[in-house]
Amino acid sequence: MARNAFLSLLVLCCGLLPVAAATPDARTIVERADRIRFPEGGFQVDVRITTEHPGKKPEVRVYRILAKGNDRSLITTLYPASDRGQILLMRDRDLWVFLPRVSQPIRLPLSQRLTGQVANGDLARANFAGDYDARLEGSEEIDGRRYHVLELKAARRGVTYHRVRYWVEEKTYRPYRAEFYSRSGKLLKICHYEGYERLGRIKRPTRLVMEDALRGDEKSIMEYSKLKLRKLPSKIFTKDYLKKLRR
To answer: Which residues pair with 184 in a beta bridge?
Structure first.
């Protein structure tokens, strides 16, 4: 009886010991970070991009994004006035630009530079989980906070970058930093996710700083504002619908 009582007490004590939470797999981490960057459903948001060059006046461009999930988006240029009315349409990984004085849309790659250090795909597509195979490299402490460090490799051709190193806060799954690499392994640019504020019910990064890693003398600051959830019909994300609007 004494032996049985001892075993029962041992089992009870073991049950009270704290159990370390299992580290989520890499794909889950990236999916959760994607949901923090942007809502899963339909939404509208304005983006102001300021590109700073040494010794030059900053270049400012303003866009309005309408998006439905991770695979459909419309990006309309609001400023400067000379480019007002230009529209980028993304469906899946296909991207077209509609120009005011051109009758047919023009196909563009996601990796092509849009302005400054910002590529078309940086604005049109925010689906790291769908575009990359993720591997968890480890953990790193920065300024008293711990971050998952992940390596993302392009799952297919045509995505914005060939490889990404990605820092995501362990406790909140908030993106902190990303490094973007070319196919040859050269570091192209570095992105810092800053200015977390409540947008669309949860805190999201409202300021992305994209730094040129090749020369180090240029950076583009993407500032997000006026985000609101919207029910957007699928028909607006089609070439035929945009052609009708332009007639």
So the answer is: none
Query: What domain count does the chain have?
Result: 1
pLDDT tier at 182, thresholds 50, 70, 90: very high
Structural domain of residue 204, as residue ranges? 30-245
Ramachandran region, residue 172 (left: φ > 0; alpha: ψ -120 to 50; beta: rest): alpha
What rounded mean pLDDT belongs to the chain?
89
Q: How do beta strands 42-52 and 59-68 pair?
A: antiparallel
The domain that contains 238 carries what CATH number? 2.50.20.10
The 3-class SS string of 25-84 reads CHHHHHHHHHHHHCCCCEEEEEEEEEEECCCCCCEEEEEEEEEECCCEEEEEEEECHHHC
Write down the pTM of the prediction.
0.87
